[in-house]
Amino acid sequence: MCLAIPARVTHVTRIDPAIDTAVVDLGGVSREVSIALVPEVEVGDYVLVHVGYALNRISEEEAQETLKLMAEMTRLLDEESGAADAAGIASASRLA
């Protein structure tokens, strides 16, 4: 299973369509990604990023909703891990 993460474009470098890049904000962490698959992106756009590539543009609303759901999943996993620790059981999320 692959997971693409929403990110906001903060800088675009255009040299050649095959090697154009953008700097994106991934939850406070800046990363350079290829925009070869989405050459139309501009600063302020949201993109889905997977293994160093911006795969497609998405709306800010879709990005925020996805980030909210990911935060909720993390919270639930943390709760599960805490409950398992309290019971002395290794949680499945830590075994993976």
Automatic annotation (TrEMBL):
GO terms for biological process: protein maturation. Pfam families: HupF_HypC. InterPro entries: Hydgase_assmbl_chp_CS, Hydrogenase_HupF/HypC. GO terms for molecular function: carbon dioxide binding; iron ion binding. SUPFAM superfamilies: HupF/HypC-like (SSF159127). It comes from the Bacteria. Belongs to the HupF/HypC family. This is HypC/HybG/HupF family hydrogenase formation chaperone.
